[in-house]
Design a protein that fits this description.
CATH architecture: 3-Layer(aba) Sandwich
Helix content: 40-55%
CATH superfamily: Zn-dependent exopeptidases
Strand content: 15-25%
Distance between the termini: 21 Å
Number of helices: 5
Largest sheet: 4 strands, mixed
Length: 142
Amino acid sequence: MPKAGFKVTLTRGDDAFPLLYDRPRRAVREKADLFISIHHNATGVSGNPREARHCVTYASNDAGLALAKAVQRQVAQAVAPVKDNGAQLKSLAVCRNPAVPSCLVEVDFINLPEGEDASMDPIRRRNVSRAIVMGILDWLAE
């Protein structure tokens, strides 16, 4: 895949944990065109990750939902056969910023051995990264 020309800024590059609301604020401060938060889900102690395993992309408003739908279409293909739960509205701190279209991508379940293995696989990571880029390009074209 050729470079898409995006300037990417990470909110964290190590195990540091920036405050939740500081992440989207940084997007505003840096005049970002969009904000995507990438996560790996986990069930609670009583949950069964085999039953819960899915990918989903959340947004908190209509602008973010359009971005979430475009990204989710591509990510779901990249992580198949993981169940596709689509793009959904959900009030999450990193997505509530009305100034910057934002979404949160839940790629897989880290507390499921095959989900953890897949999440650590460099080929799958590359495929998910490419899928997110393709989703952004689709969103920009809409």
